[in-house]
Amino acid sequence: MSSAELAALTIADLQALLRRREIAPREVLEALRARIEEVEPKIDAYLSIDFDSARNEAEHVNVDLPLGGVPIAIKDIINVAGQPCTCASKILRNYRAPYDATVIRKLRAAGAIPFGKTNMDEFAMGSSTENSSVKPTRNPWDVGRVPGGSSGGSAAAVATDAAFGALGTDTGGSIRQPAALCGVVGLKPTYGRVSRFGLVAFASSLDQAGPLTKTVRDAALIMTAIAGHDPCDTTSLNEPVPDYTAGLGRDLRGLRLGLPKEYMIEGIEPQVKTAINSAIKHLQALGAEIVDVSLPHTDYGIAVYYFLATAEASANLARFDGVRYGHRADKPRDLLDHYGRTREEGFGPEVKRRIILGTYVLSSGYYDAYYLRAQKVRELIRKDFADTFAKVDAIVSPTSPVPAFKLGERTADPLQMYLADIFTNTGNLAGICGISVPCGFAKIDSVQLPIGLQLMGKALDEARLFQIAHAYEQSTDWHKAKPQL
Amino acid sequence: MAEKSELDVGYVAKLARLNLTEEETQLFQKQLGDVLQYAAKLAAVDVSHVEAAAHAVPIFNVFREDEPRDWFTAEEALSNAPQKANQLFIVTKVVE
């Protein structure tokens, strides 16, 4: 098997070879290194890679564990002991994580090897990975386009076989949208299903970590490893973790899938609409019943999201004050100068914009009109979903209204960038789970661009999403298509 | 809901301890004005009978035993300090 063929394996196939001792973990790492050297100059998916530590771990890893010997790429917002954790921000340029996040500890316990940190929008704020202070990542299907974001490095690495699988984080769509735009699978777990301990906080009531993978089965494998209660995260749910691969292969007969009328809005690329409609017919042919449903407060999602997410971000990012870690301005005159310049020099434009908006909606005189009102509309959005999940097993929609857009196309207009999350961020507000799975291509400017189908499920119903997504994926060929770099 | 013109980016930046250039202040004033205008639609929602949701999964009063456990050593806690000496963070002068 050539190193390119080896790098192209799914986690499930790779792990089977490792377990049968047909291949050694260090050979896997070498094949992956060769593939990364080949594609990284074209896509810029990584911020740092530590093959020395990875080789060392590969020597001692137990390949009989569920992810034994499998290298996993990690979004650079998740702490991996001894490795940089920069959040693609200048303010954390020289930061090295002194500890493992709980998801990393759990990955290691399952035998996985976290070997490198992937590019992202600074502090996960963005939908294109263009807000990285280091470099933009490129979409492997068209390097003139964005990979989506904020977990764009993770998505692009998986799409190009430069990672077997990756972790991302999703606050408003940051796993699902880049997964859709790069043609891979991405799951945002239920809020509280996966520990947030060791993730650099953006919006604490919305953030969740989850997998980006080549197949649904691989996502289920990673979820089985990382999910579960953590005493270090008071918002983590104390519920048993099922084997998420157990329900894969079951058919869809008897399942009811809701199609929200509010999601077929103007502004959807017609080819996305066509692809979603044929995916729906396909799901029907597999035995699912399609039911029209309504999520009446959908249109308020973006507004609610940007008030709540920025409010939480403005509080969370107050910790970047140049005192205990991170960048500190040179020779401050006094404490105000110290704070003001440290943060001016350390943060990029989008982060500054969100700190301003978040501080404003929390400020005296505006709190009730903006922040409190947004929290109340959030409750209405949550109730929309609760009412709908009383009638259906899952909700079907596009992941993103458009395929990958061009680099620079939306950077001048933050509001346009925010609208990229229109189908995903209500899932975060409601705390439910959602998965994006490849469902076709749009042909734009004579290039093929992937389209993602989103399935949303009620809280803690990830197993159901995996079952449906797997049945769909295995009866189509979309996930087998690879970008030609 | 408040009018968009009430946002004073320069003032809010001071509250946030974030220096901005004049250019940034003007740009953000315009861009966030657009965002606030877009979000004005929230004023139309009837929320008179709705309780605010701080988060989606209501868990309250999570406690753990107050027991010592292994955690960072002083060296580890200081490992990313911008300035340190004698196992302490060196900070900017706060008193005259």
DSSP strand count of chain B: 2
- Nearest-angstrom radius of gyration of chain B? 23 Å
- Please work out how many helical segments of chain A DSSP would assign: 16
Mean pLDDT, all residues of chain A: 97
Low-pLDDT stretches of chain A: none
* Distance between the first and last residues' Cα of chain A: 21 Å
Query: How much beta of chain A, percentage-wise?
Result: 5-15%
CATH class of one domain in chain A: Alpha Beta
Please estimate the helix content of chain B.
25-40%
Major β-sheet of chain A, in short? 11 strands, mixed
Instruction: Please state how the strands of the largest beta sheet of chain B are arranged side by side.
Output: 1-2
Distance between the termini of chain B: 43 Å
Shape of chain A: globular
Look at the structure and name the CATH superfamily of one domain in chain A.
Answer: Amidase signature (AS) domain
Instruction: Name the helix and strand elements of chain B from N-terminus to C-terminus, one letter apiece.
Output: HHHEE
Q: What's the alpha carbon Rg of chain A, rounded to whole Å?
A: 21 Å
Q: Helix/strand/pairing class of chain A, anyone?
A: alpha/beta
Oligomeric status of the shown chains?
heterodimer
Mean pLDDT reading of chain B = 90
Low-confidence stretches of chain B: none
> In which order are the strands of the major sheet of chain A placed?
1-3-2-4-6-5-10-11-9-7-8
